Automatic annotation (TrEMBL):
Protein name in UniProt: SDR family oxidoreductase
InterPro entries: KR_dom, NAD(P)-bd_dom_sf, Sc_DH/Rdtase_CS, SDR_DHRS6-like, SDR_fam
PROSITE patterns linked: ADH_SHORT
Keywords recorded for this protein, A-Z: Oxidoreductase
Family label: Belongs to the short-chain dehydrogenases/reductases (SDR) family.
Record has Oxidoreductase as a keyword: yes
Limits of the Ketoreductase domain: 10-191
Entries under SUPFAM superfamilies matching the protein: NAD(P)-binding Rossmann-fold domains
One Gene Ontology term of the molecular function aspect: oxidoreductase activity
Coiled-coil ranges per UniProt: none
Amino acid sequence: MNARYDYVGNRVLVTGAAGGIGQAIVEGFARGGARVLAVDLDEQALQKLAQRHSALGHEVQAHALDLADPGAIADLLASLDCLDVLVHNAAYFPLTPFAELAPAQLRRTLAVNLEALFWLTQGALPLFARQGGGCVLVTSSVTGPRVAYPGLCHYAASKAGVNGFIRNAALELAPLKVRVNGVEPGMIRTPAMDNLGDATLNARIGAGVPLGRLGEPADIAAAMLFLASDAAAYVTGQTLVVDGGATLPETLASQAL
C-alpha cells in the first residue's frame, strides 16, 4: 500500500475489522493518523488487532458488535461524539446452493450485508452534521452487480442492493455534504476465500485473472483510502471495481483467445 493519505484528526469507524479486507482498511487509516474504531463480532481478534496497533503508536479501539442487531448499531453510533468516515465492510456469505438456502441464512445475509448499512448510515448522520459533512464507504462485490457465483445467490442479491443504496443515498445525502461510495472487490486472498475453495483451485482462479494474480486485502484498502481522501472530494454515488480485470472478458471462453 504505497499511497499515503493524511487522516490526522479524523475519526473512522470500520466494520468487519477483525480480519482480511477489514483489517487492511483499519491499518491504512491508522497509518494515516486516524483514530479508528474497529467493529466486529470476533471480540478476541479485535483485541489483538487493537493491541498490535497500540504497539505501533496507532489509535485503534475495539468494539464487539453483532451487525444484525439494529439496536446495538444505534447505541454504538449514539455513544460517539464525532465521526468523519464510516466504512461498512462486514459481510456474511455462507456458501449454500440456492435450493438448500434456509430462511435464517437469508435473513442474516440481508441483515448484515445490507440492512446494517441503512442503520449505520442513519445513525452517523447527526455526527456528520456536526462535522459539516462526512463519507460513507461500503465494501460491495462484483458478485451480484456484475457476475454470479454458484452458492452465493443470497450474497449476490445483498450486494446488488448495496449498490442501489450507494447511488440513492449519495443523491439524497449530497445536500448534507455526505459522500457515499463503494468498492467492488473481485477474488481477494483472504481467509474467507479459503473457505470457498482449496489452495489449488484458488491458484487456478488467480492465474485466470488478466493481471495474473488474486487480489490482496491491501488492494481494496488502497481504494477505500482514496475514496475517503480529499482527492475524491468530487466523487459520490460510485463503485470502484478492484478485480485485476477479471470481469473484463465477455465470457470465460474469451480468456483462451
